[in-house]
């Protein structure tokens, strides 16, 4: 069921909140909306191939205790219409238009992986729109190894098929005992929603987003020094998809940014350390 309005029931949890839709310049975008109505809303931008049900409910619910949280599907992904863009710039343009269509003049952004690319581009293209920025498991345009994401990912996807495990077990988490436990807990959380689940990405949309990621990795570096808002950067210390050194580079290049690196953690470090990440993110947003 999709509801095309902005009604909200206080106390809703991400696993229960309804999927909504809004028409933005002729394209219907799917989103979920929860949390208190006061203050600056936080918009979540997710990873390659992700739909609404790939947002970690522990992180969403934790943040929504104190902030209005809007989780969105990119164009051509999940419940959103249209064709998936092949550039990060186009995804950022879509997100800006969607934010305006929802009636927001100022937002905070949390971008994970591909979502972090999009969030950076939004902050650079519409600086007056963004109050605070959280970049997780991500890297800058032209960052080391970003254009090699498919080379790194496809063997781990095959491994997932052969071992009958979700590929995110290997893509997002380390192979240590801690990593395996965290992967199992995370994947279990993603199944908490029992009804009104989002549609998975089509192979075409998945490949078009891959083109956008590779183009970002080959793009000329952006002038991140012009980002003048508070920024929090977080990652695991062993991210193989977007190598951790990219997070360190982001923090170095963005003036005054904060950096958190989680030990024995991979690309999904914020999922593994959700109980530490949520308070850190709330403190950052409310500072």
From TrEMBL:
Keyword annotations from UniProtKB, A to Z: Hydrolase
Gene3D superfamilies listed in its UniProt record: alpha/beta hydrolase
A GO MF label: hydrolase activity
Keyword Transcription regulation appears in the UniProt entry: no
Name of a matching Pfam family: Abhydrolase_1
Superkingdom in the source lineage: Bacteria
Residue span, AB hydrolase-1 domain: 41-271
Name of this protein: Alpha/beta hydrolase
């Amino acid at each position: 069921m999709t509801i095309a309005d902005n009604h909200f029931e206080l106390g809703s949890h991400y696993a229960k909140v309804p999927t909504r839709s809004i028409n933005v310049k002729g394209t219907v975008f799917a989103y979920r909306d929860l949390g208190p109505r006061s203050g600056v809303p936080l918009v979540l931008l997710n990873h390659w191939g992700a739909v609404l049900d790939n947002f970690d409910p522990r992180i969403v619910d934790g943040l929504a205790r104190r902030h209005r949280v809007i989780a969105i599907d990119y164009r051509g992904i999940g419940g959103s219409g249209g064709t998936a863009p092949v550039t990060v710039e186009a995804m950022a343009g879509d997100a800006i238009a969607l934010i305006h269509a929802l009636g927001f003049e100022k937002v905070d952004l949390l971008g994970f992986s591909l979502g972090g690319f999009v969030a950076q581009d939004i902050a650079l293209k519409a600086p007056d729109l963004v109050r605070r920025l959280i970049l997780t498991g991500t890297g800058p345009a032209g960052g080391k190894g970003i254009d090699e994401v498919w080379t790194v990912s496809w063997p781990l996807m095959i491994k997932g098929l052969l071992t009958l495990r979700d590929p995110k077990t290997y893509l997002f988490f380390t192979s240590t005992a801690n990593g395996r436990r965290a992967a199992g807990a995370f994947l279990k959380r993603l199944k908490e929603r029992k009804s009104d689940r989002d549609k998975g990405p089509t192979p075409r949309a998945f490949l078009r987003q891959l083109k956008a990621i590779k183009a970002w990795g080959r793009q000329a570096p952006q002038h991140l020094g012009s980002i003048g808002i508070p920024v929090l950067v977080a990652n695991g210390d062993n991210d193989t998809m977007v190598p951790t050194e990219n997070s360190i580079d982001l923090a170095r290049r963005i003036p005054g940014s904060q950096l958190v690196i989680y030990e024995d953690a991979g690309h999904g470090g914020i999922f593994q350390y959700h109980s530490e990440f949520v308070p850190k993110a709330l403190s950052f947003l409310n500072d």
